[in-house]
């Protein structure tokens, strides 16, 4: 088997309005990359600077059949749901929500952030669930920044935040229903790192700052681009020594579900009948509402 993965496809993210009117940079789903099984969606919010009283978020909306992962780099978000749960995310925090059988939730700026304004920057990732797990009871894992493991290369040029999975000898603390790796890498000029991945996993790299070389073929990837990698046990990430700035990227790897995907807005099911039932359950109030 080929040891280092190669770049099969490069997709440039497009800008799209979401939630209450905020803009996101979205590499997936797009026309050229509808999904990278098991990953359904990746949105980058910001970075955007809000004046006091201007910040917006995602008001009440439902989810069923998959998991949403919110990772915040800057700002403050408050989460509420139809089960009565309330949570808050600050810079560096993660919320891994298993929507499962269905829930209504909102993600809005905290009152303090709304009043004071400031920089907001973060990501939302959607992870599909196999048919057998789509009826799970909703679950939340809210992991504060200080509990998320960090790794550092021996030369100190590569740093990784391990949200899920493993890298540079450290293991994530989030419990995932399927095999998923979610990593935030910072690479200084001169960094040249190899990180291992499962040969059966889908693997992608999203660069959100700077530029890097990826894979055995050292393909050039700019900020706002997503690279799909194929075949192999290792992913090579390089920032040339002559670069003047560091690079930031997300590395995603996951075991494909390999099942039909039928989706409409916030619902991702396995059949048209299940999708129609999800819509009816939401419209009839069976998923509850936020009080």
Word description of this protein:
The chain is mainly β and 291 residues long. It has one domain (6-254): Jelly Rolls, CATH 2.60.120. Helix content is 6%, strand content 52%. The protein is built from 2 helices and 26 strands. It has helices spanning 111-116, 272-283; strands at residues 6-12, 14-18, 22-28, 39-50, 58-63, 66-74, 77-81, 86-89, 94-98, 103-109, 118-128, 139-143, 150-152, 158-164, 166-167, 170-171, 180-187, 192-196, 202-209, 211-214, 219-222, 225-230, 234-238, 247-254, 262-264, 267-269.
Output the keywords:
mainly beta; Jelly Rolls; 2 helices; seven-stranded antiparallel beta sheet; 26 strands; globular
Strand order of the largest sheet: 1-22-19-24-17-14-13
Could you tell me the radius of gyration in angstroms? 19 Å
CATH architectural arrangement: Sandwich
Question: Given the C-alpha coordinates, what overall shape results?
Answer: globular
Mean pLDDT: 95
Q: How helix-rich are the residues, as a percent range?
A: under 10%
Question: Beta-strand level of the residues, as a percent range?
Answer: over 45%
The strand count comes to 26
Oligomer: single chain
Low-confidence stretches: none
Order of helices and strands: EEEEEEEEEEHEEEEEEEEEEEEEEEEH
Looking at CATH, which topology would you report?
Jelly Rolls
Q: How would a crystallographer describe the biggest sheet?
A: 7 strands, antiparallel
SS field, number of helical segments? 2
Q: How many distinct folded domains?
A: 1
CATH homologous group name: Jelly Rolls
Can you identify the CATH class? Mainly Beta
């Amino acid at each position: 088997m080929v040891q280092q993965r190669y770049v099969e496809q490069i997709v440039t993210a497009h800008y799209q309005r979401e939630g209450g009117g905020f803009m996101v940079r979205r590499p997936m789903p797009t026309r050229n990359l509808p999904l990278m099984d098991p990953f359904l969606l990746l949105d980058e919010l910001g970075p955007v600077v809000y004046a006091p009283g201007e910040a917006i978020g995602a008001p009440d909306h439902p989810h069923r059949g998959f998991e949403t992962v919110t990772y915040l780099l800057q700002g403050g978000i408050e989460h509420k749901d139809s089960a009565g749960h309330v949570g808050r995310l600050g810079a560096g925090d993660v919320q891994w929500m298993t929507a499962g059988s269905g829930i209504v939730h909102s993600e809005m700026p905290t009152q303090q952030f709304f009043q004071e304004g400031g920089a907001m920057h973060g990501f939302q990732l959607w992870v599909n669930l196999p048919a057998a797990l789509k009826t799970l009871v909703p679950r939340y894992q809210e992991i504060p920044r200080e509990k998320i493991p960090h790794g550092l290369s021996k030369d100190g040029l590569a740093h990784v935040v391990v949200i899920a999975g493993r890298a540079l000898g450290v293991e994530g603390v989030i419990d995932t229903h399927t095999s998923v790796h979610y990593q935030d890498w910072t690479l200084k000029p001169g960094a040249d790192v190899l990180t291992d991945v499962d040969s059966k996993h889908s693997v992608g790299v999203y660069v959100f700052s700077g530029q890097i070389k990826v894979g055995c073929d050292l393909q050039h990837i700019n900020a706002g681009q997503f690279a799909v990698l194929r075949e192999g046990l290792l992913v090579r990430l390089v920032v040339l020594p002559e670069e003047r700035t560091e690079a930031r990227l997300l590395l995603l790897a996951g075991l494909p579900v390999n099942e039909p995907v039928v989706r409409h807005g916030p619902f991702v099911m396995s059949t048209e009948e299940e999708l129609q039932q999800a819509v009816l359950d939401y419209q009839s109030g069976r998923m509850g509402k936020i009080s």
